[in-house]
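Subject: Carboxylic ester hydrolase structure
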Amino acid sequence: MKRMNSILAGLTAVLLATSCATQAGGAVPVISAPAGMIAGTTTGDVTVYKGIPYAEAPVGEHRWKPPVPTAPFETVFAASDFGPACIQPRPREGSIYANPPETVSEDCLTLNIWAPADAASAPVMVWIHGGSLTAGYSGEPLYDGTALAEAGVVLVSINYRLGVLGYLAHPELSAESPEGVSGNYGLLDQIEALRWVQRNIAAFGGDPANVTVAGESAGALSVMYLMAAPDARGLFHKAIVQSAYLIPTPELKTARYGHFAAEDVGSYIAQATGANDLAGLRALDGETLTAAAATAGYAPWGTVDGRILKRQLVDTFDAGEQAGVPILAGFNSGEIRSMRFLMLPVPESGEAYEESIRERYGDLADEYLRLYPSSDLVEAALAAPRDALYGWTATRLVRDQAALGEAAYLYHFDHDYPAASALDLKGFHAAEIPYAFGNLRKTPRFWPEIPETAEEQALSDGMLGYWVSFARDGRPAVTGAPEWRPFAPGKAYMSFAGTPRPASDLDPGMFDLHETVMCRQRAEGLQLWSWNIGVKAPVIPPSGNDCP
């Protein structure tokens, strides 16, 4: 019914467009694409198309099945309103990230497009929102693509299935699949959205041969999944990875590397929710199921199924089997400050801390304590998980892409401002997004307010310029701004702290320590290295299983 209403409303839009060039919201352009006739809204130099369905509603018997492309619209589709968000829990009240969508639905597979009004073969950026694969929404004001479009990019933001509805694996789901696999439905949605872009984006002024896939946090994890997924090969040509975490992924039928088998998790969730089997799971209302699965402890991940994700991400990147595309990747100095649940326990004393580290890290203890000294136990408890999760990942990604001969650029966001500083949130997780999007005034309600100063605007202009330049030609270069050198061979990076500043060799020794810890733990089957670190680490195996 929602889509029928949009189509009927589209007829009115066409009549208005033919008789009057503008209305209160701006001009009403209608484009013809392989997907059909689509009416948007032009304000100033940007045309916006909202809530375009790229796949059929994944409901009823289509729940937990690969997305089905939509048929072309028979009449004009009015792309004037964002579609509903995919079903998700309500955020914790008062969280700086809290920006709950007005409506949620299983019928949520839509995308939005911001295009320069005169676009022709413009670079395309496809944005994948974060939210732990559990929450988030393509229509959040933080992701408004107006400023990027004004700078010459066609920005596409997408919804994808979340939580238990997007990532559940189950033996009965695998049995009914022609390929014998299950899980990864949210990832399949992202791939289908990229296919839709390839078929249709030229009609919006975008170049299907110049697509950058970009994301932050779980969106950045999704970008890594896409880089590893054979089905996504050729659907994008560059990658922007903001605050990603390269961590182990459950395997479909095998308990390995600290995870239960994904199918076993699905069977447990069926029992825990009282559904018992697949038919019972499909009979549950989506919101009820999502809430019950969260209560039962379900956490969504991609699944190594041998088909969509052939093996662990680290193994894929080690073998050089990931997509050979240029990459821009980085992390923030205060990633853990806004996610204190990831912070390590703080020992009672420096002596207790050092004793614990030496017991666990053996021949690596001196280097660990050099990087995370006992002189500031709180900072050590924040910095170590930041580096193990985000710093190591960003550095590894640029290293691995450079090894393929691709352009690779590293950044470090270390910016502070009074409202963030007052909350001890310097460089917090996701803090770079409003700067890169040019959306300093469009942050969530409890986000530390960014000052309206020339300095803040200049930082935003610089970051947005680098992001747009990279999307355009794979090189972040802005006239009049400092040169951003590739990571290799000199370990160069760009520091964003007040103003862009080129630097090299970020946190010397940090990457090598966490790479060595990862390799040693993996050799022992303990792949949850990024969680079990510092005073929470097991005894790290001795040398002999270091990285090649």
